[in-house]
Design brief:
The chain has 5 helices and 11 strands; from the N terminus they run ααββββαβββαββββα. The relative contact order is 0.16. By secondary structure, the protein is of the alpha+beta class. The longest helix is centred in the middle third of the chain and has 16 residues. A hairpin with a 4-residue loop joins β3 and β4.
């Protein structure tokens, strides 16, 4: 069992049978890889909780309730499109079944780059947000809520919560 936990901590994928031997898989999705161990919880919002991923420079977002899965999936998809289009945001990694060692269960969630920053309130980033939101809207994004992180070391702001964003391609706009 320890070897399986070590594999997860190192970011190695487990088979379905190996995952099953570690704990509850009722909230897992069989089509997704069983990979990564959830570390310390570092944030909580209305839809999900954010965890550090042990041994990695990543974080994971897991839904608070299994019914919020769609919004979490939407947030990941928008995060991925935004990153590919050059919007300042964490690099997405993918969807996984993530092991929660405290609860001995696997949970669906997505993993992305960890930004070593602090949540910001309105104030110093207001001009940056206005400029970045305008850029995003010109690319086809609809922004309903946005939260940002500020990385002092890089002197850079990042959007990080995309659950309520939408994206329309130019083709969809013509309909």
């Amino acid at each position: 069992m320890k070897n399986l936990l070590d594999n997860l901590t190192e970011g190695k994928e487990l088979t379905f049978e190996e995952a099953k031997s570690l704990g509850d898989i009722s909230l897992a999705q069989e089509s997704l890889p069983f990979k990564y161990t959830l570390g310390e919880k570092i944030g909580k919002g209305g839809l999900g909780e954010i965890y550090e991923i042990n041994g990695e420079a990543f974080v994971a977002k897991v839904p608070l309730y299994h019914t919020d899965k769609y919004l979490i999936e939407n947030g990941f998809t928008i995060n991925k499109i935004a990153y590919e289009k050059g919007i300042s945001c964490p690099e997405p990694v993918g969807f996984f079944n993530l092991y929660n060692p405290e609860e001995k269960k696997f949970q669906f969630g997505f993993v992305r780059e960890k930004i070593n920053g602090e949540k910001t309130g309105l104030g110093e980033e207001t001009l940056w947000i206005e400029k970045e939101c305008k850029k995003a809207e010109e690319m086809g994004f609809e922004i309903f809520e946005s939260e940002t992180l500020y990385d002092k070391e890089k002197n850079k702001f990042y959007f990080f919560d995309f659950d309520f964003w939408n994206y329309r391609t130019k083709k969809e706009d013509k309909k």
